[in-house]
Amino acid sequence: MDGDLEKDRRFATTLARGLSVLRAFRPSDDGLGNAEISDRTGLPKSTVSRLTFTLQSLGYLTHTRRHDRYRPGPALLALGNMASASLSFVDLSGPLMQRLADETGTLSLLLVRDAGKMLIVKTWRPRGVASLWLEVGHRLPFNGTSSGHAMLGALPVDGFAQAVRDAAGDRGLTPDQAHVNRDLAQSQIQTRGYVITDPDSYFAANIHAVAVPFQSRELGDPVVFTCGAMPEALSVARMREEVGPKLLQTVRDLERMMGQSSGMSAHDL
């Protein structure tokens, strides 16, 4: 948690800790106990016990059958659905991104910044084609991912600085490396419209991906649309010549549907 924020009198530390408990859950979890949540959040187990009891009482967490492990509850599901419904670009992008996934045979993704990580919030899988294992709720690092580099390149100066602080050196993202990634991403956005991270520096050797940032008028921060696949199905040449341009065109189509100007301006970068 950002030390400067905690010193701000307007900052509700208890609320922030409760939200950190909710963010500790991952799609692959078979429920979490208080000890595991404590390990993931860095909060004392006694604090976690009070928070999980409160969140469970309010419906944001639910007990599993053994009553010693927690899962996200119905109130959290309702909150997520409400948030998604309030952002028109999420629904509008669905048919466009599904068509792109089918045409390119890639896993198409929508990612947002979640503190010092990139969080997958939507996926569109190509019909009839095996695709990457990534699922909604997975978090990817800023450093060594096309989506992370695209976000670093698209964030305003203050948002970029906060993202670097939140990442806290994750996977080698020092301030100097973050500026290198940002400069390279901005250069690619300005010249091509999409970002491809060098596969040699990618955080996972079995993934190739291309990303395009999108700034909705409904949000303060940009989001990132990405297409990814195994290297044998998505070479660098194919990303540059086919998938990258198609992803860019899809995002431009979304911008037109929303009545927004096409692309991120130099001022945005």
UniProtKB/TrEMBL annotation:
It comes from Loktanella salsilacus. Coiled coil: none annotated. The keyword DNA-binding applies. InterPro entries: GAF-like_dom_sf, HTH_MetabolicPath_Reg, Tscrpt_reg_IclR_C, Tscrpt_reg_IclR_N, WH-like_DNA-bd_sf, WH_DNA-bd_sf. SUPFAM superfamilies: GAF domain-like, Winged helix' DNA-binding domain. Residues 12-74 form the HTH iclR-type domain. GO terms for molecular function: DNA binding; DNA-binding transcription factor activity. Keywords: DNA-binding, Transcription, Transcription regulation. It comes from the Bacteria. Gene3D superfamilies: 3.30.450.40, Winged helix-like DNA-binding domain superfamily/Winged helix DNA-binding domain (1.10.10.10). This is DNA-binding transcriptional regulator, IclR family. Pfam families: HTH_IclR, IclR_C. Residues 75-260 form the IclR-ED domain. GO terms for biological process: negative regulation of DNA-templated transcription.
